[in-house]
Amino acid sequence: MVENIHDQSQLDRLGQLGRKLRREQRLLSCFRLRTNYDLLIGAAVLGALIVLAFIGPLLSPYDPLEMKVLDRLKPPSAAHWLGTDEFGRDLLTRVLHGARLSLGIGITVTLLTSLLGLIIGVYAAFYKPLDHILMRICDGLIAFPGILLAIALMATLGASASNVIIALTIVFTPSIARTIRSTALVVREQPYIEAIRAQGATNARIIWLHIAPNALSPLLVQAAFVFAEAILSEAALSFLGAGIPAPAPSWGNILQASKSVISKAWWMVTFPGIALVLSVLSLNMLGDGLRDFLDPRSKRKGKGSRRVRRVAP
Amino acid sequence: MRKKWRSGLGLSAAAVLAFTVACSNGNNNNGGSNASGSASPANSSTASQPAAASYKDSLKIAVTAQPPTLDSATTASALALDIAGNIFETLFTLNGNYEPTPVLAESYEKSEDGLTYTIKLRQGVKFHNGKELTSDDVVASMNRWLATSSRAKTLLEEANFSASDATTVVLKLAKPNPDVLVLLSAQAAFPAIFPKEVIEAAPAEGITDYIGTGPYKLAEWKQDQYIHLVRNDDYASPEGEPSGFAGKKEAATPNIYYYFVPDNATRVAGVKSGEYDVADSIPTENFEELSADSNVALSSYPGGTLTAFLNSSEGAFKNEKLRQAAVAALNDEDILLASFANPDLYKLDPGFMNPDQTQWASTAGSEYYNQNDQEKAKQLLKDAGYNGEKIVLLTTPDYSEMYAATLVIQEELKQVGFNVEVLSSDFATFLKTKDEHSKWNLMVTSNGYQLIPPQLLAVTQSWVGLDDAQVKASVATISSEADPAAAKAEWDKLQGYLYEQAYSAVIGHYNEVVATSKKVEGFSQFVGPVLWNAKVAK
Amino acid sequence: MSQMSPASEKSRTSQMSRSGQKDRTALLDVRGLTTRFATERGPVTAVDGISFAMEPGEIIGIVGESGCGKSVMSQSIIRLLDYTDHVSYEGEVWLSGEELLRLSPSRMRKVRGNRVSMVFQDPLTSLDPLYPIGDQIAESLRQHRRLSRKEAQARALELLRMTGIPSPEQRIKEYPHQLSGGMQQRVMIAIALACEPQLLIADEPTTALDVTIQAQILELIVELNRRLGMGVLFITHDLGVVSEICTSVKVMYLGQIVEEMTTARLFANPLHPYTQGLIRSIPRLDGDRRRKLHVIEGTVPSLADRPEGCKFVTRCPYADAKCRSEEPPLETAEEGHRLKCWYYREIRSGAREATQYGE
Amino acid sequence: MLAYLAKRLLSLVPVLLVITIATFMLIHIMPGGPAAAILGLEATQSDTDALNEAMGFDRPIAEQYINWIGGLFRGDLGDSLFLHQPVGQAISEHLGPTFSLAVVAEVIALLLAIPLGILAAYKRDSALDQLVRSLSLVGMAVPGFLLALFLMLFVGVRLHWLPIAGYAPLADGVWAHYRYLILPGISLGTIQAALIMRMTRSSMLEVLHLNFIKTVRSKGLRESKVLLKHALRNAFIPILTVIGQTFGTLVTGAVIIETIFNIPGIGQLVINSIERRDYTVIQGVVLTVTLLYVLINLIVDLLYGAVDPRVRLDRK
Q1: Mutation test of the interface with chain D: which of C78, C95, C118, C128, choosing the one with the most D Cβ atoms within 10 A?
Q2: Domain check: are B188 and B307 in the same one?
Q3: What is this model's ipTM?
Q4: Is residue A174 part of a domain?
């Protein structure tokens, strides 16, 4: 089509074309964002939950721990919008405080897991002997049934919020590390890394300036799923009595308590249950949306696979 | 979902221990199935049933957990002992009035000095393997019991059994003990009679060859599912009106299944639907629901006390003012309601002993009971110069009533200004932590009734490290005092002292609830469910 | 949609006026076939009022660049698009006196693979990789002829032999990926011929193959056409292939037939600027090596923005305002040679000079 | 084939080593010991010590580990401290209920997920497709234990249709057996269904765009045949992978679901054993579950060959 590239007008046309392309690219990514309902809805619901978790407890007239035993197991009413629990505590207040706890633990686990996973992943990809050791440990931990690992860790460490965070971090880090490692391995083989090395860059510089940034977008996607799984797992552990100790108003704790009064107090199952589902749902959508946004090709390949292990069934 | 160890496995072990040293005066407790006078099972109605009524050939009882063993001498698990009681028999047992009554023994003679008991065995008794019971079997079994059972070791030191002929055994004691027959009869770690060969072949961890003389034989033990017992057709029953564990045993139903159903809701649903004929340890949350069910009869009987123990050996509660402040802050009614859900299922009473047991029931120290006095507590805190030191409440979610009580107490202590934290862990960790006195300050446990005050955990040093000369002296006096009135007076003083010093405080008394299908006849409740005369109408 | 319909209406009416009643003898008689897809941005016309007829035993070539609607047209005939897209058809497709577009889906299935078969471009991806080829050939026999498994396999073997696959007894049990491209295409042909169809639609059957294999496959198709007397609708972008086997040719551009004629006339006397462009872009062994190969300027516009007026207007060197605003009718230039162009006479006589491409 | 199996099993060794060592260390630093469950609250320190000595827990951990590994080579997992039976026997007795539950869950999941996934892909962007996509999104967000609670509340407590918990062996009759497994099966199967549905849909979508689907349709086959015989089989490898993964997580899921519904399976066994500090059983279960997981993956790998002849040939 273009016969003489040195022709000035042709060059101008090419330049225009390039600018147009870039603008279209920008428009396209705006469009992708605008039509990425998963991402938008997920982010909106999650945002709403976070706002509720921070503001809700401030507005509630009740203390999440204060017991009015005579008011135990009262159904939803004007005074207690979501009813009361088996100690006569206001369920709405406890669910809102539970949101703080669950989201807080979720975020902490996600940050720790991402950081550790990133470090382990990139170093494993970079140093062969280290890779063997780290990956065998990761394989072992991944093959270890997740919930058992978490329960055993909790039995060993003792029930507390910080131990839940430690246990879940141990459970989730290996799969993040594996994801990061596989991305990093691909990047490491790129010719430009070889070129940078030839220029005398140190390993640390290569790892942190060139390899790690490339692993960020898969990490971001995985982080959303880890967040969701961490919330689920915390609830499951607390539900089994191996998580955050009562009287802390974690959703899992409320659900655990609800089980023995299930025939009398439907509200104790329903409301924390809805809160839990909503937060996990929004995070899953956010994760799917992020993946479509950051890696549009994956959409064509289908959304079937997630790398994060499920701990809670 | 959560595996609940029935109090039996651990704590209600205490309930069982209650009977280790029994009082021979039969007037202290009617002890029957209807001790509390509440809803009653149909145990007395057997006679009035038409003879033609047809019955099912198996009875199913849902219990809370799998027992660790059926080797009675080595365990304190109430569940194990309940089940083992169908398979094994002892020389003596307790009747409904807690009186020793012969089972495998026929008669006994006590020597003048009280050091020798000559016991004649009942004849014609056969083991499940067909072998006839002889004095050799008894001697082997009883001597093993003396060596293994920690109760026997401490209470019958240097005692020894020997055979004088094939149907007579002789028990020799190192020093006289007026309660020796009660000890031989008590259910806790009861001295089951095994064939001699089984005893000789017994491994260190305990016998697993469950051959006894009882009305039922072990047919199958499906791990974590059920124990199946079948009628022993060659059973030679003792005579007499059934009473407690004594009297005639009919083995009325050919098969008994003990199902291990840790989940409360399942036991409840099962007894409602008729899947189980009897369900043990009904959770208090389901009491109302089951009361309303026309197919189910509920029987509740006094179970024991819910007691707060304060750790006076280490930490903040070494300071008696702080202990008193904590006890002053307690609103026992709230705690009990949260723990047992229904006011019919608990009772407010300051006594450490069974309030129905006239010999020992005491209200001493009631001015310190259920004070709910926040002002006083705050004042005491101020007097003690409390500096916000952390108070740790030790508990385990495996026992819901202890757990609930602990959470309420935490709130109540917070209200008066304590800085309180709950240390909650699974049962195994809980037990271990309990002995590490530096790690906690207060713990609530539910404990079965004891028959005499010296057996109370509240006065036992090894329990929570209570080390008080006055308590020890009082206990010694009560143990040795021959005159019941004087012993009672000493106990009143001791109970008052425990409250005053705030070493421990009873929160209240709870009932155990057993649900039976209305089709069940001849069932009775003594220390545990008594099934050998029970049958289920079709 | 609205901008499309006048054009298609026009072509339809012109077609109607030309042949008043249906041709009973024709094997295939396509009248005003229009295929539209519903897309997120409205309906798109992929085939625009195509009409043609073919007699039994005839081999008709359909040529055009990719994207000109050849494949959609051919798949519309046997309504293969029913399943994949939101598609709507207009017009009529008569197969031996039966109108296909109005058949129920189950009646339509009895036509497919039975009376009309198709052979596709890329044989490897057109065969199910998970079944032995014998099964795939037998499948339509079992479907349409109700043969037993054994009979079907025996017939499959016969078909393989007929298509000239070496040692067919052994091949019949093999999977597609174990065969070479040529053999795969022979298998495709065996599948298509299994039920001895009246019409074979071959959609670029040789494009993906080596030149030597291409010739063999073409030979096979021609031979089978003679032996079995079936009509062949041969879709290709390769004019050389057309010249070898086809009796007549239809040139398609943007969903329309822009020119149709006998094969002989195609090379001797192409009239439509598009056809001329196509022919001039064929590399010639006898041609002047130094001469630059002709390229038709521009690319085929997307279906979503088809121009009004003459569809070729964006690339036609002779286009003027009239071409842009009015669509030319399909006119008969000579007996058996029709085309859509306002100025073909002027172009033929040299009276009209090629102007600058585009505007 | 055998060489392939041997290679797979060999590659397992380091993983198992990591797992068993981790388990061993973990359970031995857990506070408390088996004595609590066996002897109860009243046990004196000397009783506990005697028990620990009898069971060999006074010896160094390394020695215990080596003894245990030695036992493994003789096919001996040791004896349960609490159940008075060999660990192998305890595990095999508890595997039955878990297996039944897993089968019910997987059958429910497959019956729901595969047809819906296929239809959603076939009728892409239709109302049904939207529904299926929403279902799978929600399905992945509802944890099994929560679903179990809701099912207990509505089906068990409100409607009394099915027992809310319990278990009966198959010997008690087919209905008696399965009626206990329906609610747990749904609780456990829903997430599997969601994952499988999602994968079926996307994999089918991909396959339905492939050329050979046109060929198959041009043969005049019925759509059911096109979808099931040709499209589904071609779409099946990724679906199979997900099924394999979900089967693996079923065991994990069983831990919670079995405790909720009181099913005497391997999940309940291990939870009980952790509470009882029944060390040998914990080790045995972890080993078994890991091996099962690997076995399932191996079976899935072998099934790839059955589904796709190309995989089969590549391996030769």
Answers
A1: C128
A2: no
A3: 0.74
A4: yes
